[in-house]
Amino acid sequence: MRTIDWVSDADGPAIEIVDQTALPDTTRMLRLRTTAEVVDAIARLAVRGAPALGVAGALGVALAAARDAARAVARDAARAGDAGTAGDGGGAEERLAADVEALRGARPTAVNLARGVDRAAARIPAGPAAVLAEALALRDEEIASSAAMAARGADLVTELVGPAARLLTHCNTGGLATVTGGTALAVVTELHRRGALAGVIASETRPLLQGARLTAWELREAKVPFRVAVDGAGPFLMARGEVDAVILGADRICANGDVVNKVGSYAHALGAARAGIPFLVVAPESTVDDATATGADVPIEDRAAGEVLGFAGHRTTPDGAEAANPAFDVTPHDLVTAIVTDRRVIRPTAR
C-alpha cells in the first residue's frame, strides 16, 4: 500500500494519504483537495517522515497548479459567454506563489519538504501537467530509494554485527514515513526477510508516540517480532547487552555528517557510544543537505506545549507548568558510525 499518492475522482484531483494520527486504532484514508488541507495535514502530522514530506510538498504544488488551471478554464468559458460557468483568474500567480510558500514553510526542519516543493514549483512555467509529472517522478524515486536502502543497509548491519542482529530503532521510518518500504525500518524488515534479525526494540518516541503507535503497527503488519520500550530505557538496554546496533532515520544530514532527527535520537547515540555498538542512520540522498554546514545551522521546530503537558487530551501536569518541546535534536557526526543512503555508505568519522 502506498501511504501517499495522487488520485483523481469525480470531485477532481486529490492527494490521498494514510491519516497517521488515527493509527494504530483506525486505518483511515484522507483525500486532500486544497493546499490549506495539505499544509494542515503536514502541520498536525497526519503525514510525516522526511521522504513522505517531500512527496507531499511536491504533490501539493501539483494540486495548486491544477486548481489554478481549472480556474483559468472556467474564466475563459465565462468570457466566451457560457452563463453556466463562472471563474476568476485574477491574482492567479500570486495565489500560486503563496501556496508554494505555505507548503514550503509547513515544517521547517526536514529538508525534504522544501526540496520537494521547490522541485515541483520549478516546473510551473511549463504548466500543470509538467508540475504533476515532476511530483510523480519524485514519488517513484522515493519508492526505488527505499528498496535500495533496504538492501544496502541490511548488508551493512550483517557486516557489522553478524547474522542475528538485535536492533533498537526510534521514531517511525517505515512506509508511513516514505511511500512504501521505508528507510531504517525497511532495513529491519529486509533483515527479517533474510532470516538475519533476532529482534527489534521500538522506542515509544515521546511525546506523540510515533514508535509505539506507528512503528509497532508497521512491525506487526510485517510480522516482525518486536518489543516497545520507553525512550529513556534505550541506553540502559544497550548497556545491558540487549542491543547490537541502533538504527534510525534522519530529517536532515548536514555537510559535516551531523544528523538531525526526532528528539531522543541524541540520547540513543550517546548510549550506543558508551556501549560500543554501531549507531546507524538510514536516509535517502535527498536528506543530505550539503548547503548546511553543521547541525547548529538547522532551524529546530518547537511544537505546542500541550503535547508535553498532557496526554490523549487530558492535562497531566499542574496548572502553571511550562513545556520545552523541541521536535528534533542533533546528533554530532562523531557519534555516527555510518549513514546509509540509496547510493552509498557514508562514514562521517572517516572524513
From TrEMBL:
Molecular function terms from GO: S-methyl-5-thioribose-1-phosphate isomerase activity
Protein name (record): Methylthioribose-1-phosphate isomerase
SUPFAM superfamilies membership: NagB/RpiA/CoA transferase-like (SSF100950)
GO biological process: L-methionine salvage from methylthioadenosine
Catalysed reactions, semicolon-separated: 5-(methylsulfanyl)-alpha-D-ribose 1-phosphate = 5-(methylsulfanyl)-D-ribulose 1-phosphate
Sequence similarity: Belongs to the eIF-2B alpha/beta/delta subunits family.
Organism, scientific name: Actinocatenispora comari
InterPro entries, sorted: IF-2B-related (IPR000649), IF-M1Pi (IPR005251), IF_2B-like_C (IPR042529), Initiation_fac_2B_a/b/d (IPR011559), M1Pi_N (IPR027363), NagB/RpiA_transferase-like (IPR037171)
